[in-house]
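ok so I'm stuck.
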Amino acid sequence: MIFVKFINKVISWKKFIMHETVENLIQIQKEIKEKIAELKYNNYEPTVIAVSKTFNLEHIKHLIDHGHKHFGENKVQEAMDKWSDIKEKFGIKLHMVGKLQTNKVKQAVRIFDFIHSIDSEKLAQKVANEQKKINKNIKIFIQINIGDEAQKSGVEKQKSSNLIKFCLDNSLDIQGLMCLTPFGEDPTKYFLELSKMNNDLNLTKTSMGMSDDYIKAINYKSSYLRIGSKIFGKRN
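replied:
not stuck anymore, here's the structure
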């Protein structure tokens, strides 16, 4: 009995000193598990990418200490500055989730393990060339302009199969499709459409769902959930 009380005190103490980012992540993971159980999906466990763009390591280190491995950045130079010295030490898997400029590909290939934003043959060719130079195999997602928005990146839906063929012909490791849904709209129909496209193209993974809609993305078995503000709070 005394031992049980001692353990409960330790648990309470750990909870008291737990950083809010870790608490947020744990709550998100709980919500994800509950939703999967509700849907009765078997053998499905999505990966949470903690999108840490604009936050410094002092803010991120609590998640690293907690054991979280997958982090996302949307600027190459910020990723280089932030992660170069510690990425290998902690076994971090780094995801490029923002628009990638061709003049940044060389550095991106060196620091990132995943690129979620390939949307042209020119960009794909550059990635293929650079990863070959250093004998590295980046995991690639093709970004689809799912809402046909002129202001957004992403390949047009009708051109996606040609881009995927080009990537495969150049030995790129295509994981699946990625999308950013139109702001302010219910993402459900877009998640459904991307999931169907993914299946039709014989791809196995999807990258969809962010802080505001990751629970809805689970309905369509999104493989990677890109969650930033729900973990780290509002950005400056």
